[in-house]
Input
Amino acid sequence: MSEFKELKQQAYEGNMRLPELDLVLFTFGNASAVDREREVFAIKPSGVPYAELKPEDIVIVDFDANVVEGNMRPSSDTETHAVLYKHWEHIGGIVHTHSTYGTAWAQTQQDIPIMGTTHADHLTQDIPCAPPMSDEMIKGDYEEQTGYQIINDLEDRGFSYEEVEMILVGNHAPFTWGKTIKKAVYNSAVLEEVAKMAYLSLQIRPDAPRLKDTLIQKHWERKHGDGAYYGQEND
Amino acid sequence: MSEFKELKQQAYEGNMRLPELDLVLFTFGNASAVDREREVFAIKPSGVPYAELKPEDIVIVDFDANVVEGNMRPSSDTETHAVLYKHWEHIGGIVHTHSTYGTAWAQTQQDIPIMGTTHADHLTQDIPCAPPMSDEMIKGDYEEQTGYQIINDLEDRGFSYEEVEMILVGNHAPFTWGKTIKKAVYNSAVLEEVAKMAYLSLQIRPDAPRLKDTLIQKHWERKHGDGAYYGQEND
Amino acid sequence: MSEFKELKQQAYEGNMRLPELDLVLFTFGNASAVDREREVFAIKPSGVPYAELKPEDIVIVDFDANVVEGNMRPSSDTETHAVLYKHWEHIGGIVHTHSTYGTAWAQTQQDIPIMGTTHADHLTQDIPCAPPMSDEMIKGDYEEQTGYQIINDLEDRGFSYEEVEMILVGNHAPFTWGKTIKKAVYNSAVLEEVAKMAYLSLQIRPDAPRLKDTLIQKHWERKHGDGAYYGQEND
Amino acid sequence: MSEFKELKQQAYEGNMRLPELDLVLFTFGNASAVDREREVFAIKPSGVPYAELKPEDIVIVDFDANVVEGNMRPSSDTETHAVLYKHWEHIGGIVHTHSTYGTAWAQTQQDIPIMGTTHADHLTQDIPCAPPMSDEMIKGDYEEQTGYQIINDLEDRGFSYEEVEMILVGNHAPFTWGKTIKKAVYNSAVLEEVAKMAYLSLQIRPDAPRLKDTLIQKHWERKHGDGAYYGQEND
Output
């Protein structure tokens, strides 16, 4: 029996939540879960429809994207995951989707502005849209460079990956992460909903203002601050 | 056995209708039901996913938001519910959601204009959007102040809470109420549908006029007036 | 046993299709089926949720809207149905909904322009939007007058109710009809889909042209003309 | 037993996927699968609702659209399929739908611009919208001419049908094809999703730019180029 059985199961469950949450069409997405001790992660095999995916199909790869265990080719986006796991020590899961509203924003090359408390409950910044990658990055090791594009964009903005757990890659689509794969999946659904709400608000009122700072701070603090009182004690 | 078993069941059922009606994602909402005799209400515990919610998880609190019975922390919005129950003697249930179209309107800080009979079947006014709260209110007891923001906005407009059973809190999201929790849930779904229709009408025709008074009165009266003839005698 | 058992069953099935086709929220709609020989029709009782509706709840009324059989009050829109059945001898069923896109167009007081073959497969005209009713009509016998507003608008435009089987009542919502209740229900779903497509096309290209006459005629003729070749021989 | 049993089954399964993928309302669509050796294809019968469709209802026709086997009339669009099979030797399946966003774009007579990698994963060109057909073509053998309109438009643009597997017919709706009926169905869903994303992006930012060439080439190559590394070896 595989020593990675539990890790594969986690990755399998995370991946299966994506179609349940209407975040992927066909194979347009992938989720992974990391094992920090063994320095490997479990990721969806490339091009396999969710309806046919089985826990044993999940591929185990190391942080250089070499396959450690598995009979199938891992997701074509595996190197992006590998780069993020290598550089960001405190994340446990990563999700990539082409969810409709998030991708539509990515195609505009614009950040999703923070317009309400639904957004502020999850992050205090606009959801960043990294610029489309340079031709050099695209023609080089594209998927690895996608990881660096994400890391560099957060750094340029002075954002912490532990606070801002989501990004759009310009002209491409959303990437999200979190302490667990479950949280990364959750963040993908939050991004999609917030993207839809911001779209609608700006259609109704093109000059609708950004959320004011006191509300941003209040909603963030009550869920994530030192005196957070949202959820249960042991959450 | 809890003396509040029936009240908890009511609150449980009201809460469970919210995901069924597509009004909440994850834990973004809460519903409560009141027992006027005992001066307590039953409300969803904070941060518990609907798929895992059980009737016995429902928390009983008094009108000062003190927990009377329950092992879990009540919703972080509990004080808002408490203020409304304390001030509005004739309501039996309250619902708060971040439903997509309602929240999108709240993010614009605009009332939802009355544009058709679907709206007039339920209220004769635009659905009010209370302005975003002042910094003092936000930094104070935020959730309690949210309740006062709602009460004050209705009073400033001269609206009765028994006729206008729904409001948007600016940059936040919808709150609805009613004689029963069932009616409050119903009102949340009505608000969402009316919000979507008004959005679409204004996209098709930005200068579409407000509904004329005779139609507003007619549709309201046939459902709610002295000679109402909608529904069954015993409704 | 009721002599109207089969008629009630037909009306029941037609009504139950409305939530299945996502055309109604709660009780916002009603369908009826006529028996021309007995000069009665079967219609949904007022205010009864679809989930609770049973075939025996259906109410039988005559063309003056008097209840012939049934323990419940018929739909508040019964008089509108009665007027249409009385004046239009060749219709067998009527449906009224507040479907989202159809109602959004009604709220703009604009016809839905014919922009593609999906529309032309069903009618050769824009879907008419009757103007909002006059104050006299609204304050009079409102539901009966709604029927006359529909009849008069078709007549003013020179449209035959046997070709144009759908209309919007301005600021209100869609009404559809057909040779059978099944066809009337079908028409309600067609209207909603065509309303959504026209909305989207005009958002993408505000000056998108109306469908040209040759295509209108071709698509209408192949389904409804003398040499129609769509469907099966016995359709 | 029919010698076409397997072919009919393939066509049946392809057709049944269309409502599952929310690409058709009622009977607004049809799919076919070809047998190149026998020079026949299997297609949906005309006007039969998907809920009632059975494998044995599928009609077998030759490349001149003559019925070879079957008790029902084939789809009214059969001649369009026949023309495409006759001229394009390497396609195995064809799908026609009136899917909402694809049809909305067709009604604007505009190509769907390539705006992101979701699009580039499937084709390197804008999704072409053939102009509405000339009056002569419409009044002639309309369905056959629809096939020529599609073929001619691709040729005029210098597109290969083996690379560009989808088109809009102006004021009408989408047609897609592929090496198999399964791929043709897949392409219909891709077209609908890409059409929705492009619509949303242009609503958010009307001057959003077209995807740059390096990204177009990269995404196309990794799925379809000589060194493609998407999917499994045996895909």
Q: What stands out?
A: The interface with chain A takes residues 25-26, 28, 45-48, 72-73, 76, 98, 100-101, 103-110, 132-133, 135, 138-139, 142, 171-173, 199, 202-203 of chain B (CB under 8 Å). Chain B has one domain: 5-223. Residues 5-223 of chain B form a domain with the L-fuculose-1-phosphate Aldolase fold (CATH 3.40.225.10).
